[in-house]
Design goal:
Layout (H helix, E strand, L loop, with lengths): L1 H23 L7 H17 L24 E17 L22 E5 L2 E18 L4 E5 L6 H8 L7 E6 L2 E2 L2 H8 L2 E4 L11 H12 L6 H14 L15 H13 L5 E5 L7 H18 L2 E5 L5 H6 L2 E6 L2 E6 L1 H10 L10 H9 L11 H16 L2 H9 L11 E3 L2 E3 L9 H19 L3 H17 L10 H39 L5 H31 L5 H28 L3 H17 L20 H13 L4 E2 L7 H4 L6 E2 L1 H7 L6 H25 L2 H4 L2
Parallel strand pairs: 4-9, 4-10, 7-8, 8-9
Antiparallel strand pairs: 1-3, 1-5, 2-3, 5-6, 10-11, 12-13, 14-15
Helix pairs in contact: 1-2, 2-8, 5-6, 5-7, 5-14, 14-17, 15-17, 16-18, 16-19, 16-20, 17-18, 18-19, 18-20, 18-23, 20-23
Amino acid sequence: EAHLSERETLHQGHSDIKTEYINHAMCGATSQSSTTNMKMEETALESFGDNGNYTNDDENGSEGFGGKNGVHLSWSGISKLVVVKEINAGIMRSSISAPSNKKKDAPPAPRKSRLSLGSTKEVVTKAILKDVSASAEPGKILALMGPSGSGKTSLLDVLAGRNPYDSGVIRIDGQVATGGMMKQLKRKIAYVKQQDIFFNHLTVRDQLTYTALLRLPSKWSKDRKHAEVDNLITLLRLQKCADSPIMLVSGGEKKRVNIGTELLTDPSVIMLDEPTSGLDSTSAVALLKMLKGLAKEQGKTVITSIHQPSSAVFRSFDSLLMLADGCVVYFGNPVDSLQYLKQQNYECPGGYNAADHWMDLLVTDSAIDEDTTSQGSELFEAKRKLIEAWDGEVVADEIENGVHVKASPSTDVEDGTTEIQEKKYNASWMTQFYVLTHRSLKNSRSAVFTSMNIIKAVGVGAVTGLIWFQMQNTERTVLDRSAYFFFTMSYWVFDAMFLALMTFPQERAIIFKERASGAYHLSAYFMAKTISEAPTRLSLPIFYMIISYWLANINNRFVVFLGTTFCTMLSVMAGESLGLLVGASVMDFDKAMTVMVVVSLALLLVGGFFVENMPSFIKWVKYLSPFKYSFDASQQMVFDRDVPCDGSGVLELICGGNSEGFATSEQVNEFLGVQGSIGFNIGILILMFILPRYGAYWFLNRKKGGERGT
């Protein structure tokens, strides 16, 4: 009975929306081609069919997917400025291009502050949001429309609490939002960004499953969470690519995975930044149908930016906020916007898409000269007139007076504060650690433990073993065996450093994105990453050591092989920690790469192989080098017995050029400049593995990043 009732509700929803599309699909009279387009979109709705089942209520009536009610968001007078800095030199300009010709009525030039002799810094301030006032209600979809650069994404960032604003007021269910209220609400917002950022080696099902395990209510069973993932895959029509790696799916499918990842969080407010980009007409209509269902049936507050929708999609929105150059030019019902344009003498032609008509009025082409082209002048004049005609103060007054504001049952307002009765994280720390460990292990296994990397490790090991092939334990091979270990440590530490540095920027973006919505503790992520990646990171050096060590006959004692391999593994982990530290502390990748090259080469040079006599003022740097400690520990293990003299003169100070006698292990280690005991060097390597990683954690926790906001 519940299933039949659900189907009846869906078909009734289809019927209502189809009727609305047919009645309002075009401006005025509908042409033959327009009718064809309407039928295609109507067919899209039919093809969507029963996949609109976005709920999954259990027998006890508890909440299924999208079970939380929305909140009433309103904002008045929101303004945001950005500062653009341009450096112009008096002797040599910052640009070789000629200065542009200024118009007679151009505003006065901004103030310039002196930088140095013959140079000035010109500071230009640009307003990307100007006194924007509007509201979004539970159970309705608010569409943000406007040309590129009109401020749609900036407004979403402000409302999501991820970017600051200079002036204005945001209200939650009629209450002025404080910092604490916005921080609490931010965890209940599903924010689907334009960029589709994922671990590309995971499959679509993996991505959604890990999100469900982390962010769906902890009281749900694992089977129920998996069922939600299956329902969402069906809902977004991802069945064909569900078990394919994300890096192999199409752009439209990746966009749907992005939306699905956020919808699994059981949000109160759903914000989407141009979600239909990359989707075909059928998928776009189906997606909007799903969002409309979430809004109507579950009381969600849905806010979406959209560039230029089709006529049917345009009419399906409950409210429309039209922006141009950061200013509001219309806020209200989409259908009523046509009457508003008619009042402004910009009537929509018969059979023309209303959204296209709005864009024709607001989009200005920089290639058109406003002063010399009559068409360009008309376009600029239309936009200016619409900006000036809109009375934003009326909307702001209505919002400030609480017109049509209803308190949402999802919040509890008391003494002027809003408390959202939810835990900060749905999953416990141990659950987060377990899930993140499993995800990181699977991702690193696919990214690091590949056939090409295995071939590389085996190949380098074979070449190294052949070059140092079957060395004898004599005076002649002392420096060669020492060089073998310095090369081994150098290669694998560098490999770990730069691999961590180059892969971390994308991973850092994912961390900011997931933590912005309260997915997990940063400490749980770091512990999971450290433990899960160790087996895959260390497997390749182990392959190398097994092959090269025995080919080179470094030392035939198996315990020495184990000890030197352990030192190699510790140096790899220390090198990876340094790469993570630089990647977390220096946000710009090019700058981070420059810092990493300088630091790594400096540590290599002072590692004890290239330079013996360093100036006293820089000699202390060698004690920061992981190369030194792994090199010294390995040499002490290898040279654990007396070395026969052979008259080669390598140990002339010890053997005196004789072919008889022995050099003790202590004498050899002293000759090689080895410092500290084996235990001391290993202990320092462990510290170099832990401390930089903790530093990376501290920098990530301190730097919010664009995704985490302020």
